[in-house]
Amino acid sequence: MFAFMDEDSVSFGFEDVSREEKSRRVKGVFASVAGRYDLMNDLMSAGVHRIWKANMIAWLNPQPGETLIDVAGGTGDIARAFQAKANEVGRRRSSQTETLTFVSDINEAMLVAGIKATDRNMPRLACDAAALPFPDRCADAVTISFGIRNVVEIDKALQEFRRVLKPGGRFACLEFSHMTHRVLQDAYDQYSFKIIPWLGERVTGDRASYQYLIESIRRFPTQDDFAARIRAAGFSEVAYRNYSGGIACLHTGWAV
Ligand SMILES: C[S@@+](CC[C@H](N)C(=O)[O-])C[C@H]1O[C@@H](n2cnc3c(N)ncnc32)[C@H](O)[C@@H]1O
Question: Which ligand 1 atom is nearest residue 34's CA?
Answer without folding.
Answer: 27
